[in-house]
Amino acid sequence: MDISRVDHIVYAFPDLEDGILAIEKLTGVKPVPGGQHLNHGTHNALMAIGPKCYLELIAPDPVNKFIGKRWMAVDNINGPTLTRWSINTQNIIKDAQTLISIKKPLGEIIPGQRQLRNGEYLKWKMTKPNEFGLVETVPFLLDWSQSNNHPCDALDIECELVGIQLVSQNINALDSILGKTSDQISFKQGHQNSINVTIRTKKGVVVL
Q1: pLDDT of 44-82, one tens digit each?
Q2: Beta 32-37 vs 109-116: how paired, if at all?
Q3: Helix, strand, coil share of the chain (percent; to 5)
Q4: How many domains does the chain have?
Q5: What is the model's pTM?
Q6: Residue 186 maps to a domain
Q7: Which of 19, 77, 138, 197 would disulfide-bridge 13, Cβ 3.0–4.6 Å?
Q8: Where residue 47 sits, what CATH number does that domain have?
């Protein structure tokens, strides 16, 4: 598993428009509305933070009459929260075995899709993000080979990911995945999981 291939970081908001405005004010860049996750009751907006790396703003979708547990912990937040992060994989079956060794459900491979604003669909395979807890520091995996494009291909790169700090209650799990850490990723033991992201923006370096 190549941990340097950070795919995206999930930033959950109670309301998507409020999230877009907050990030634009903080960074000088307005996230671009992406579309709806029809099977999960959420919608999103994206901001590129690298050639194949983006910040995903996600929130409950008021138009979707979804009944059930929305993903990425959007039902659990009290305010803007970085809840999940993912790695781009070119061999999801092999890399999922690493996650299974930590906790079997984290290695479950599922299909995903998002309806774009033009009515078309973006499709992918992924390992199922943890359904429980507010913040999960163990990454999930993304395989975009079913789509012709990566979500970043349609975005201007106006910001740059500087680093990710993971504070985890389960440091052993992170060590087994991130033992050979990249320059961008660091982790430490903590009493409460958190994801802290540093980004270089039009308004300088900001920490989320």
Answers
A1: 999 999 999 999 999 999 998 888 889 899 999 999 999
A2: antiparallel
A3: 20, 40, 40
A4: 1
A5: 0.93
A6: no
A7: 19
A8: 3.10.180.10
